[in-house]
Amino acid sequence: MANRLFRKKTVEQIISASTKTAGLAKVLGVRDLVSLGVAAIVGAGIFSTIGLASFNGGPAVSLLFVFVAVACVFTALSYAQFASTVPVSGSAYTYAYVAFGELFAWIIGWALILEYAVSNMVVAISWSQYFVSMLGGFGIQLPGWLTMAPAYASEAYVKLQEQGLESLSKADQVAAMAYEHAPRLGDIPIIFDLPAGLITFLVTWLVYIGIKESRTASNIMVAIKIGVILFVIFGGIFFVKPENWTPFAPNGVEGVLSGVAAVFFAFIGFDSISTTAEECRNPQRDLPRAMIICLLVCAVLYILITLVLTGMVNYTELNVKDPLAFVFEYVGVDYMAGIVSVTSVVAITSALLVFQLAQPRIWMTMSRDGLLWKRFATIHPKHKTPSFATIVTGFMVAVPALFFKMDFFVDLTSVGTFFAFILVCAGVLYMDYSGISKQSKFKVPYINGRYLITIGLLVAVWGIYRYGQEAIMEWRHLSIPEIIEHKLLIIIFWLVWIVLCIMGYIYRFSLLPVAGILVNLYLMSQLGASNWFIFLVWLAIGLVVYFGYGYRHSKLNKADAP
In this protein, which residues make up the domain named Cationic amino acid transporter C-terminal (predicted)? Predict the structure, then answer.
């Protein structure tokens, strides 16, 4: 059984299967892929969660963007090598099938389903907030109970009872009033986020009717999106007050790192374009180029806009859901805030579009391998899209977006993504070791890490001893059970680095994929325990599905059966 669980697919098997069964339209070039990548990356992260990250870390969050961007470059290079070697839909799921075998492929595929679904829930909720703000600018007020999550309204109502109306923020006042005035089913108030559900439905319909239509819509919305970002940067620079950048890191390193999930969420998306490999005209050439270009463009935009936002407004004011519009309202330029709100609605829609495009193709690829029901691999005869998988994706995103708070989803998105990124970087090391890299049209630049990985470890240990005495004192005051509860992931991080030092010396590992593994694993260790619990529950459900259906119906399993 162990041999079957870790049985690998060859590159030839995967390409042959996709050629026989896919039937997707090959219409995407480099410009289209860059557009889709920018559409995915520049989404709710920069239009919403960047405010929370700046509130926690101050202006120093701009350095966190640099750090996360570097981590993503290491990962993007690894994705690019895989995409040039295995130019089919499936992203990290397909790559894991080649490098680590069926069980790991299933785990990654299941994690990607969660990543794309949860990402779009955040994007849909963020879109709703900007949409409601935009309507308010035109004098149209939707009932509050139609525009928010039930938990948000009930929490605000509890605050109202405890603290009184005057002590609440404006947003909490609106939510508390929504709870009071909502229609009721018995004693239960009827509260849901209608705009979030509607936009998910409309984008799902667009993805369903065709890749050409989705491409055209994405290109238009990305042009508008980049325009908004440049508008904020060049318009806001005149209102920057350098004193707002002091102190640069008001809450220290801990405050900056508390924004890891939000900042990393802002970069999620460059990997999603690898799911469109079978719709590219020349995937082995175009996918690597597109990934690197869109990541570099977005990193520069993010760093600039973070500096502008924290320069215009003191970081303590930025814990809002629509920071780009808020900063112009704060400095009294309401017409610019209105322009940002209107165009942000269009811009965020493009991120929703790309993730709704990506997730059905994961379902489709897993179904094609026999790990999910055949229906998920159905290609619409007219529209040439995975029709059934697209409909399921629409329901999977729309229903939670109607009823859950955005804060619940942000960290959860990052857990599965980090996991996928680490395995893709590790997969490149396996490709180099096994010789599969010889088939790659694009390769991660090779830097011999035989000694550098160990030197990096020694430098890190010295840095902690020299500058991290506070952290060392914290560890000394923790009991063994507390260390296991709160610091287990950090311990795993250091153990993995030690193992990589040993293996890197023996196998002469390439430095860049190792750096990708370590940076992603470190960022992963900074996420909350509750998010890990939910992720593990999702993973357990996935394993039940795999052993209940996928293991028995796997095409590799059937091929080896006597």
Answer: 511-554
Taking only the tens place, the pLDDT of each residue in 112-142 is 888 778 878 878 887 887 788 778 777 788 8
R_g of the chain, CA atoms, integer Å? 24
Pairing, β 188-189 against β 184-185 = antiparallel
- Write the CB contacts of 74 (distance below 8 Å, at least 6 apart in sequence): 425, 512, 513, 515, 516, 519
- Is the bond preceding residue 189 a cis peptide, omega within 30 degrees? no
**What single-letter DSSP state applies at residue 97?**
H
pTM of the model: 0.80
Quote the pLDDT of residue 528: 65
Q: Helices 194-209 and 334-368, interaxial angle, to 10°?
A: 50
Residue 184 CA to residue 182 CA, distance in Å, equals 6
Element containing residue 191 per DSSP (H, E):
none
- CA contacts within 13 A on the Cβ side of 519: 22
> CA 445 to CA 100: how far, in whole Å?
22
Contact call for residues 271 and 206 (beta carbons, < 8 A): no
Identify residue 57 by its one-letter amino acid code.
G
Give mean pLDDT, residues 511-530: 84
362 close to 324: Cβ distance less than 8 angstroms: no
Q: Which residues face 193 on adjacent strands? A: 147
* Structural element, H or E, at residue 533: helix 529-545
Which 3 state secondary structure label does DSSP give 193?
A: strand
DSSP 303-332: HHHHHHHHHHS-GGG--SS-HHHHHHHHTT
Whether the CB-CB separation of 307 and 62 falls below 8 Å is answered with yes
Residue 560 banded pLDDT, cuts 50, 70, 90: low
**Amino acid found at 265:** F
State yes or no: cis peptide before 513, omega within 30 of 0: no
**Residue 159 vs residues 138, 165, 192, 220: alpha-carbon distances, Å:** 30, 8, 20, 43
Contact (Cβ atoms closer than 8 angstroms) between residue 513 and residue 74? yes
The token duo for 519 is 């940076």
E-assigned strand segments in 104-245: 184-185, 188-189
Rounded CA-CA distance 257/414 in Å is 14
Place of tokens 């026999």: 370
Residues 367/376, Cβ–Cβ less than 8 Å: yes
Q: Could you give the CA distance from residue 262 to residue 349 in angstroms, rounded to a whole number?
A: 19
- Cβ-count burial of 12 within 10 angstroms (0-12 exposed, 13-18 middle, 19+ buried)? exposed
Tokens representing 508 are 């002469």
Q: Which domains does the chain have, with CATH numbers?
A: 2-14+27-138+195-436 (1.20.1740.10), 150-191 (no CATH), 446-560 (no CATH)
Q: First vs last Cα of the chain: how many Å apart?
A: 14
Separation between Cα atoms, residue 179 and residue 188, nearest integer Å: 10
